[in-house]
């Protein structure tokens, strides 16, 4: 790309609001100087940066707010067409909605179409990086990685493996899980913006043999990621206990196999024991909190306070299609609701927390905190410009916001896919809402600030 000075109202959280009361950084008339490789080299107020770099072309994002690209740490690619299966709890929903659909991805044309729909869902909602729960078929994963590269998104994804209690066509063997995983890692891990995640579906559907095959891959390729589900639903937890009588608890089924570490992300964790939280913290694992899914499937209210106090890192995931859509704004709002509903056991969340959980926290969960997650110099320019259509409710509320935190709260309370105007990954524009100009003309520092006069 051409080096560019972006002018916008922007907000980001380079540190965690759980430990730093001043984590939210805002510029009402901000500048982000992005070099030819798509990396932010300077970040600050526009006038200062423009004076220092008068010859650098300026792109003005007038109105709305620029945020770091959203990072979704738990989302199922094969489930985009079954979003909205209401009225069931986890195991019934899997049987009736998710697994029959996932079986259809054995068909390559079907998988190709679903891949395209899924990736559109991510980028049109401002998600620039995702830890993607894949398909049970190697062919469908090759199609996914090819399409994700074309879409320009950062993805961490892997073949999902299971050998019991699902449907026969979704089962594999430990030998095949290893050989197909190895082939996918060799072809895709570290290529472009793709990374590989070793992905047993959950201990309920994975024998010790499958978990050992996963561990063999992680030993052989020490920098791959690991993801699975944990402690989502009480019936699931009880079944896992019966299937692994020698394990201390659900976490221990993964721990004994050697699957836990800094690059492990465990989805849900709604019903953890104190021992499990202590062990998750000791391993440096992260929890992917999926509040819309937890509410929709009636799984429970996520104990965020216990995770934070135990030192377990938490990020957000949409859990499409148990979740209700791709919007990380909606997920942030639901995370806030969940803590409100927990009363004294909840952890009150500010707008800064919601931004952190949907951006920077995800980068840290994926061990990518040095590259993405905020607008500090040295980070890739991964960004979402939220620019509500004129006259929309969000537009009205933003125009009357008297401070950046108020504007941020308005974005989470009112924002939807319709407000995502443009999205960049590594400086490459990967999404433009129809009707939004592809490039704003060059402007001078004399132009008025974009929004939120201070
Ligand atoms: Zn899931």
Outline the structure in words:
The chain has two domains: 4-68 and 373-432, Urease, subunit C, domain 1 (Roll), CATH 2.30.40.10; 70-159 and 229-365, Metal-dependent hydrolases (TIM Barrel). It is built from 16 helices and 17 strands. The relative contact order is 0.17. It has helices spanning 46-52, 90-103, 108-123, 138-151, 174-188, 208-220, 234-243, 250-257, 274-283, 291-296, 304-310, 328-341, 351-358, 360-365, 393-399, 404-414; strands spanning 4-12, 25-34, 40-45, 58-60, 65-68, 70-76, 127-133, 154-158, 160-161, 194-200, 225-230, 264-268, 286-289, 313-316, 383-386, 420-425, 428-432. The strands form three sheets. Strands 6, 7, 8, 9, 10, 11, 12, 13 and 14 form a nine-stranded parallel β-sheet that branches. Strands 3-2-1-4 form a four-stranded mixed β-sheet. It has a four-stranded antiparallel β-sheet with strand order 5-15-16-17, with no helix packed on it. The chain is α/β, with parallel strands linked by helices and 454 residues long. Helix 12 packs across helix 16 and helix 13 (351-358) crosses helix 16 (404-414). It is globular. 37% of the residues lie in helices and 21% in strands. Bound molecules: zinc ion. Zinc ion (ZN) is lined by residues 74, 76, 133, 229, 267, 319, 322. It catalyses: guanine + H2O + H(+) = xanthine + NH4(+). It comes from Deinococcus aerolatus. Its cofactor is Zn(2+). Pfam families: Amidohydro_1. Belongs to the metallo-dependent hydrolases superfamily. ATZ/TRZ family.
